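User: Can you model how histidyl-adenosine monophosphate sits in this protein?
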Amino acid sequence: MFKRIPGTKDILPEEVSRWQQIERIAHRIFTIYNYQEIRFPILEEASLFNRSLGNYSEVVQKQMFLTRSGKDIYALRPEGTASVARAYIENNLDKIKGLLKVYYIGPMFRLERPQKGRLRQFHHIGCEVIGSQDSSLDAEIISLADALLNSFSINDYQIHLNSLGCKKDKHLLAQIIQNGLKDKLDRLCADCKRRFKVNILRILDCKNKDCQETIKQLEIQDKHLCLGCKTDFEELKENLRLLKIDYQINPYLVRGLDYYTGMVFEITHKRLGSQDALGAGGRYDNLIEELGGHSTPAVGFAFGVERLLLVSNFIPYNLESKKLIYIITLDKEAKKLGLELMNNLRKKGFCVDTDYEGKTLKGAMRKANDLKASFVIIIGEDELKKGVFTLRDMLSGGQKQLNKEQLIQELNLGIGLKQQSAKNATYSYLR
Ligand code: HAM
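Assistant: Here's the modeled complex, given as structure tokens:
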């Protein structure tokens, strides 16, 4: 028997309603904030991610799903920011759009060791704004993340905030860490000893207790920030206070992807356990230029949908709110008529199904009950002879024989659906 690959999931029909609900909410909130949806390929050139996330980032070093086609190496996208940046440059969106505000929902792939909240195929709900350095946009981005979480019925999350500063500031920060730690390397874990050489900022957010103790002694606050970056960060904090959004300053938050500059943030939730980040983001003012575009500032974030679902309190969308009509036919002739009636009713926008399992009347009624059908239409020998349909109201148990016109009239009344075009009817009916 085949089994799914560890770290991947089947989202079964019972769970899909929660996914649809979270996606529907996301579409609505992003639209309120005036973001448009973008869809980009799941496959990209692997070097796009090497350039964007950094050759020494964990994702590029260990987690890319790669495949070769001749001389080309492709990767299953591990995240969305690099793809949006590529699409922005490739489609000349700077000239066509000016400021670009986009969001995306879709699967991402990282070759991780699977555990709770850490998958190999997971999903992002993310957004990117390209073309403005305005620090009030940073506040919009965080308030948008906050609004999404509230709409997903998620509480008790913490927003951690830091500023890495511009490229020069990041360089200075790296120097401060290098000078502060060069005589204390023996106190660091093996990973941090390696990071010291290739990815020094990541030492700041190492989870190892000894490393954290040693790093605390460096007293990194905002001493690496230039005046411009300090002012931007102060403005952001002030705007967040204005918007009544709680946050914690965490000078050790650096993020694992190299493209970040300026403000970075991470949103955590205690109930998630060791993989506690619900989402994260920040500015990446140099990425567009590094990928071959003009110098263009940008900012964004992404949530992991599986983690949102682990802590969301929302009541699953009620699938049963659609009112099902179930047709039961008792012989071959009736089956033909049933097929025709089902087609007619569906065209009118009714939600209709029938028995395809050859059940007896009793078995089919039981099935209609299990499916929570609102009405059952029975067509048997008697009905065929009289040219009528038996309509049973499953709630009251009442039953009557009706001709086709009467049947449709009754269903319209019973289901509260006025005669509409099939398209509108389907929409209002299934909502
Ligand atoms: P990231 O922190 O790598 O950032 O991923 C964002 C979120 O995706 C994480 O906080 C987590 O909730 C979820 N996530 C990441 N890896 C996994 C996994 N293996 N299994 C389940 N969930 C996972 C980014 O990807 C950036 N592109 C965010 C961004 C957008 N920054 C600017 N714009």
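A couple of observations from the model: Residues 79-81, 110, 112, 117-119, 122, 124, 126, 128, 277-282, 300-304, 306-307 surround histidyl-adenosine monophosphate (CB under 6 Å). The chain has 17 helices and 16 strands.
User: Helpful, thanks.
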